[in-house]
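Input sequence (253 aa), recorded before submission:
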Amino acid sequence: MLLTLLFISPRSIGNSFFKFASLTAAILLGVTLGFNFMFPSPVRENQVPVILLLVSAILTTIYNRVVDVDKFNAASVLLVGATATGLVSVAADSLAFTRLMALGGWENWMLLVNHLAATALLGSVMLTMVFGHWYLVIPKLPIEPLMRLTKVLMGAIGIRILTIVASFIVVQMEQPVPFIAVLRELMIQQGMFFWPRIIFGVVVPIILAAMIWSTVRIRHTQAATGLLYLAVVALLFGEFFSKFLLFAVSIPL
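Predicted structure, token format:
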């Protein structure tokens, strides 16, 4: 969500949305840190990812208090800092994960790419959905910011699909087991996880993205917001099944 905030400016739409979005992000970061405290990772060798996430949460909280049109430059620095430390935390945690299929040394890097893409995807769809509601609060908002966020969401969907394809390519190139055997394992033995992952995480988002873009273009913000609700649900389910596959077959998809 913080990453997606970088694509719009409080100078054009006011600071109220940025305060709400950053507060929501800070709460979610706090929930994540709370879960980590209650259920610490058994594969993490150090607490660097946790410390970085804590720093991101602190910077986000400060940003929430500072963001204002009159303090735009200082707020922008804080937002970039919060985003960067959060992404580095995700990257560090991905590189520390040990339960992966051996793929010639590429396995953790593939997990990193998949996790960063999933982070951008879930954050962009959540933020765009919330911003769609802002047109109910401030009906005279210009449509351009919503169009820009929709493009960001569509780009994030495209990147996420590319990371899934890249995982299959690396598996085919580096895994000594025949690729057809891997596909059979995914499609049949793990079919209850794999097919929902493809349907909710690939097929449905593509269809919804096209529908969202068409409604935004005709400035029908209420319809776009409703479709964004569906996109949030679909993508959450898609990434949920992605994590099932990660633990079931040790491949990041």
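Checked by second reader. The first helix runs from residue 2 to 5.
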